[in-house]
Amino acid sequence: MQELVEAINASGAKALSTILKSGAISGERLRLHLSLSDLAKLLNLPAQELVKNLYNIDVPFAVRRRGVEMKLVAGETTPAPDATLIRALRNAHDWVAQMKTGTSIKQIASTTTISESYITRIVPMAFLSPRIQQAILSGSQPAELTLETIARCKLPMDWQAQERLFGFSPNT
Question: Whose CA is closest to 167, among 125, 123, 135, 138?
Fold first, then answer.
């Protein structure tokens, strides 16, 4: 097994190309079928010692976008907070607090060296529903919810409308 790990570390997914027999993506599942004999050879084990789950892989997957970047995430994932979203949410709350004390967007822009236009696109995040904000902080927001998505939309004031807009299932 160590040889396989080292091969993957050395040449990435290219090391797996010799053992991949077929693969399919359907719905929200990724299915890979590996060559039993090639996998056994790579692991330096007799084929009969390999467990079926080792060469037939069927896992959930999601496509995560962040700006122009796209990433396939396979398998069960644990929530991973998005530092960019969290930073923008924190800034939005800070800027709203400053505006409540009479500081203008122009003044905030000059003291932070961030453009007025960016500030005006981010400030509405302070008014996201508590459920959305909590999901951002815990990293459990829908994969499609990115800073760009939030900044480019006209944010409804109704929290349930926001949640529908950003792909949250209805509260139960």
Answer: 135
Q: What is the pTM of this model?
A: 0.60
pLDDT digits (tens, 9 = 90+) for 17-36: 778 888 888 877 888 888 88
**Hey, how many other C-beta atoms are within 10 angstroms of the C-beta on 13?**
8
User: What are the beta bridge partners of residue 26?
Assistant: 29
Measured over the CA atoms of residue 134, residue 137, residue 143 and residue 146, the dihedral's sign is positive
Q: Which of 42, 74, 106 is the last residue of a domain?
A: 74
Q: How many domains does the chain have?
A: 2
Q: Is 106 exposed, middle or buried (0-12, 13-18, 19+ CB in 10 A)?
A: exposed
**Helix pair 105-112, 83-100: axis angle to 10 deg:** 130
Is pLDDT larger for residue 133 or for residue 26? Answer: 133
91 and 61 belong to one structural domain: no
